[in-house]
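quick one before i forget lol
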Amino acid sequence: MKQVLICLILFSLPTMLAGQVNDYHINGTISYKSSKNIYVRFQTTESILVGDTLSLFYNGQWQKALVVKQKSTTSCVTENLIPNNPDIGQAVQFITKGKKEDTTNKETEVKQDILIPAVTLDQGTEIPKDSSVTKKQITTGRVTLTTNGSINPDNNNNFQRIRAAFSLNIQNIEQSAFSVQSYLTYRHRYGIDQQSNTNFYNDFKVFTLAVEYAPSNKYKLWLGRKMNSNIANMGAIDGIQTEYNFGKYTAGAFAGTRPDFNNFTFNPKLPQIGAYMVRNDKNSTGLAQTSLAIAEQLNDFKTDRRFLYIQHNNSLVKNINLFFSSEMDLYKKVNGETSNQPQLTSIYASLRYRIRKNLSLSGSYDNRRNIIYYESYQTFIDQLLAQETRQGFRIQANYSPLKRVNINASAFYRYQGNNPTPTKNYVANIGLSNIIRMSTSASISVNLLESYYFKGTIAGVRMSDNFLKGKLNTEINYRNVNYTFFNTESSLTQHIAGINFTINILKKTAFMCSYEGTFEPSKAWHRYFITIIQRIKN
């Protein structure tokens, strides 16, 4: 009962804080990944500064993850600071301070000639509608063809992978209320473990394939497979979803099935149903949002999981952003005995404080238990229950002492149950821009890691530049890795070097190529990546 009361208090919190200074969110999408950089496309980057940190959505919450190294008017070159490996098409968010301004006729200081791979709206990202004008058909999409491979000292471990991705989003078909969204991929690896991988659906994945009906700005309905941004922790939903807006609130519901656990195909034996409520508060300076959802997931029409989810993003205090999310399981079945006693499954909270324009501090706390599906995982429920809670702390500082210098430092601690030795990770990065000419940038990074079985350091440097009026973007990088393992008293030393470039062949066509080599005293590994991107836009 106490946990439910906390949820209700958080749901009403924006009302108590309304009228104070707020933030607003800039949404983007990952358009391309190289061995070192992640490229993000926005509608505008005027409010984003080199050295700012962008957020990715993992495990039901937004996590600070990408540090901006370079930017153009609509795109950013970033560096990933977390262990997770984001996907092309994944949503990115930047939270900035103050009132959103009209920048149509405003001159900016960003470099116009930086080549950033272009992106279209993938995986269900929606194109904003303007109710004041006649609906126009807007078509965006992208075809991506990629091949990468690894050449190893042991020839038996060599492999080559091909990947094709296709996205197509048609908004307001023939100026109607209907729209379609799609994002499909095909990936196949030749070499390792391919003898046992003969199922087509292990390679072919449908992430989004849905039809939208939106007769007005108040009502929307989707049919097909789609991830809902208001309940992103649910993942992709196969079936029907609907939303209705009234004032500050959005009420939604969904009914359908979950994708199959093994190959992400349609599985009629995994039905689910749920509802959610979203409150949005805004004033002249920004936004705040609170979401509350409840869901029932089944396996062969037996309760698999029942849970409550709350998410709160509050930027109503000037220079401060608070994010909170939590899941609470409402069902438990062990040894044939069921219980509806609420049990806290996860808590994630982050706080960012911008002290000055060039100095910000942030911290986060993460506490998670294993998510258990009591019918799907019934053969190893006891093992999952025995595993202890994981919790982690992260603190980060970002400082720009000079216009062309940015310093970012962070520390991360993660604890597993009663293990007295936490996993520690310390990262420091210095970014330099305009060091040789206006388009040249470089960075130096140091990463110190330590756990109960090893400790090590990773030191690296990289430099990037663009030529031919931004049509050719190049980068070289180097890392030195030194690990010491406590149990075996052995060590690992590696030198990793790479080079990559991007060529904008035509206005909507890009070619990307990169190489990375890992060198040890007695052997070496070689990896390559080749990508062609063709954008579709009316």
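fyi The CA atoms of residues 337 and 412 lie 39 Å apart.
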